[in-house]
From TrEMBL:
It comes from Pseudoxanthobacter soli DSM 19599. The keyword Lyase applies. It comes from the Bacteria. Residues 82-392 form the Aminotransferase class V domain. This is Selenocysteine lyase/Cysteine desulfurase. Keywords: Lyase, Pyridoxal phosphate. Signal peptide: none annotated. The keyword Nucleotide-binding does not apply. PANTHER family: BLR1280 PROTEIN, L-CYSTEINE DESULFHYDRASE. GO terms for molecular function: lyase activity.
Length: 411
């Protein structure tokens, strides 16, 4: 197969003057050097200003038939907003429903796909704990079975991952749930191959896209999954309380909505998923500003910058004898996430010293389903600078040098 040439970037990932200007539009309000951006991104001023502009209107005119935002449905959605999201992520507007967060979309699918007692849901231990809680509730309520695919922790090839899914899928598997990007390590799952495999076995595929939307470049119509749920406040830098659910047109009728449609939307309508009651319209009404911010930079440019920031620390750290990387920084596509383990030092101890002595925040983690899967996670965002990343590297080396004698004695 001939590789497709990658178009040149409009902005280089190391053009610091440009990226400092982007940081200035975001104005992060961190209390320390924040190198973990997986929970939220700093929304740019244009988004924050738009929300503030609409707050009074949303509170004063929410139920007025002549309200200034009457083009938005009660749920805050509109065909124009759905069209913007569909255009950015490579889908049709009639396959995209506006939600209030990733979990709403995930819960809709996990509760809405018809399952019988004994049917199997195949998931990974890297799935978000709330996702697994939903499956476990259905297991208790409906008698379905939760099974985990056995995946390696850390670096893994696409071939090994697909082989593990192929081995785990059985004749009783009806639904496959997986993250697009594993948050703690930045592993990008081969969704296209897994979705094709699941479809060949008659299983529905749900992808948690909380850490891929706005982070890596992809098209939903290329992924081939049956459903994809995400939020817009992480790597799309939109307001908290916004997200979307994509369901492939052919499978919309196979998923019950979380709330019954009171307007009689047919089973094949994506809009049946949007009838959730009244929402605060100032939030979804600012989605166009978030899309404009991302388009102004370019997704390829964003992704390249995030990878550049990760490589700036990860390349230096992986050369250290006490560092074991959990992230393949040479993988393509890569992410801005990285994880590692320090030989001879607990992750929590390292993170505490880094925060208390150097005023730098990273995340010490243990996987919910298997606490032996532990490490340290970083995810610099567009609002971080190379100086902040470099200061983290120097602080890490200082901590390692200081603990060297204790490590040698333990060895």
């Amino acid at each position: 197969m001939t590789a497709t040439a990658t178009p040149p970037l409009n902005t280089a990932p190391d053009d610091e003057a440009y990226w400092l200007a982007i940081r200035d539009t975001m104005q992060p309000m961190y209390v320390n050097t924040q190198l973990v951006n997986t929970r939220r991104g700093a929304a740019p001023r244009t988004v924050r200003d738009r929300v503030r502009e609409l707050v009074d209107l949303s509170l004063a005119y929410e139920l007025d038939a002549y309200e200034p935002m009457r083009e938005l449905k009660e749920s805050g959605s509109s065909l124009a907003i759905r069209g913007l999201l569909a255009g950015y992520f490579g889908a049709d507007p009639d396959e995209v429903a506006l939600t209030r967060n990733a979990m709403e979309g995930i819960a809709t699918v996990l509760n809405g796909v018809a399952l019988e007692p004994g049917d199997e849901v195949l998931a990974t231990r890297f799935c978000y704990d709330s996702n697994l809680a939903i499956i476990r509730q259905r297991a208790q309520r409906d008698g379905i079975v939760l099974t985990f695919v056995d995946l390696p922790f850390g670096i893994a090839s696409d071939e090994a991952i697909v082989a593990a899914f192929a081995h785990a899928i059985t004749g009783r598997t009806r639904l496959v749930s997986l993250p697009h990007v594993v948050a703690n390590t930045g592993l990008v799952m081969p969704v296209r191959e897994i979705a094709a495999l699941a479809r060949s076995r008659g299983a529905f595929t749900l992808v948690d896209g909380a850490h891929s939307a706005g982070h890596i470049a992809f098209r939903l119509d290329d992924l081939g999954c049956d459903a994809y749920a995400t939020c817009l406040h992480k790597w799309m830098y939109g307001p908290r309380g916004t997200g979307f659910l994509y369901v492939r047109r052919e499978r919309i009728g196979d998923v019950w909505p979380l709330f019954a449609s009171w307007s009689g939307k047919p089973a094949h309508s994506i809009e049946k998923f949007e009838e959730v009651g009244t929402v605060f319209k100032a939030l979804p009404a600012s989605i166009p500003e978030a899309i404009a911010f991302n388009r102004g930079i370019g997704q390829a440019e964003k992704s390249a910058r995030l990878r550049y920031l990760r490589n700036r620390w990860a390349v230096r750290l992986r050369a250290h004898e006490r560092i074991r990387m959990l992230t393949d920084i040479d993988a393509d596509p890569g992410t801005g996430f990285g994880g590692f383990i320090i030989d001879g030092m607990e992750s929590e101890v390292f993170a505490r010293i880094l925060r208390e002595e150097f005023d730098i925040n990273v995340r010490a983690f243990a996987m919910e389903e298997d606490p032996t899967m532990r490490g340290i996670h970083l995810s610099p965002g567009l609002s971080n600078t190379v100086e902040e990343v470099d200061r983290f590297v120097e602080a890490t080396f200082a901590i390692l040098a200081r603990s060297h004698n204790a490590f040698m004695r333990a060895g």
